[in-house]
Design a protein that fits this description.
Oligomer: single chain
Distance between the termini: 24 Å
CATH topology: UDP-N-acetylmuramoyl-L-alanine:D-glutamate ligase
Helix content: 40-55%
Number of strands: 14
Shape: globular
Number of helices: 13
Number of domains: 1
Strand order of the largest sheet: 6-5-1-9-10-11-12-13-14
Largest sheet: 9 strands, mixed
CATH class: Alpha Beta
Radius of gyration: 18 Å
Strand content: 15-25%
Length: 326
């Protein structure tokens, strides 16, 4: 039996989530609903201008890992933080969520990354991210033994920018497949796909067994305006694809199977982390041997719980949520 159900690899980021009015975005020249990469100086200035918010360990894969652990999965995570105050915050928070975090901190160099998330009254989130120590993650940070100890390896598309991280993905995927494990990838963001489309396509066709993407990301990957066409291409290239469509639910594809999952009812407070929570529910269900429809329902329930409150993680009893989702 594997030691872990899921091992996530991604950008280790401290999330700072705060409510603002639309005029705050206008005043700081931000595109509503977007994600911008900023430098250290801009991060400090924006943090100083923001109202008080919620601070926690974050990053897409870290959020998925924390929610999956809350749902009962055995989870580990690899990501790079600095040996600084925020790095300590990240480590304490993710371990308190039940996730093993064996990564060594970066000594010297850039400080720990942070994502400044601004939530407007309509529930939309606008993210400004300083990657800091995240960019130092490399193949040397991948422990092949740890990879083989997890049933599922989960890779975060946001981490794909630095060439060293791309090599880390390939090393981890090779170790997982050599041990007969499955490899999952979240495309994370259409802008990531646009920057690295050819490399993503190569990674997907060569190394990925399970693909997570929303409608915008999957159509960007395959350069088509039609979701249906992109879904069929994904079906042909990966063993399993879970494609989310917001209020229209999700579509799960495996071979000739197509399973449509309705979105779980939710009152939208903050859309931060919806896709991360969906992946967490789906992976937790998959690790437990559930049918595809049950995995999708658990993913939808977790996503609905995430968007019903502030921050990227559901503020509910996740074990009870899992039981209610069947």
């Amino acid at each position: 039996m594997a030691r872990f159900d899921v091992l996530g690899i991604g950008n280790a980021i401290v999330d700072v989530v705060a409510r603002v009015e639309d005029r705050f975005l206008s005043r700081h020249d931000m595109r509503k609903g977007g994600m911008a990469l900023i430098d250290a100086a801009a991060a400090e200035a924006l943090y100083a201008a923001m109202p008080a918010g919620i601070e926690s360990s974050g990053g897409s894969a870290a959020n998925t890992c924390a929610v999956a652990a809350g749902l009962g999965a055995r989870v580990a995570y690899l990501g790079k933080v600095a040996d600084d105050q925020l790095g300590g915050v990240f480590r304490h928070d993710i371990e308190a969520a039940g996730v093993a975090f064996p990564s060594d901190p970066l000594a010297g160099g850039a400080p720990t990354a942070r994502c400044l998330i601004l939530v407007t009254p309509d529930g939309q989130r606008t993210m400004n991210t300083y990657l800091g120590a995240c960019t130092a993650f490399s193949a040397a940070d991948v422990d092949p033994v740890l990879v083989t100890e997890a049933e599922l390896l989960y890779l975060e598309g946001y981490l794909f920018d630095p060439p060293a991280a791309q090599e880390a993905f390939r090393r981890a995927a090779a170790a997982a497949h050599a041990a007969g494990r499955r490899v999952a990838l979240s495309l994370s963001d259409a802008f990531c796909v646009d920057r690295h489309r050819a490399a993503f396509r190569e990674l997907v066709t060569r190394d990925i067994d399970i693909l997570f993407a929303n409608e915008t990301e999957i159509t960007a990957l395959y350069e088509t305006d039609r979701f249906e066409d992109a879904a069929e291409q994904a079906r042909a290239e990966v063993a399993l694809a879970a494609l989310t469509r917001g209020a229209d639910g999700s579509l799960v594809l495996r071979g000739a199977e197509s399973v449509a999952i309705p979105a779980a009812p939710a009152t939208v407070v903050d859309t931060t982390g919806a896709g991360d929570a969906y992946a967490a529910g789906f992976l937790a269900g998959l690790a437990a041997g559930r049918a595809l429809a049950a995995c999708g329902r658990l993913g939808s329930a977790a996503a609905a719980a995430a968007i019903a409150g502030m921050g990227a993680r559901p503020a509910v009893d996740l074990r009870a949520l899992a039981a209610a989702a069947g």
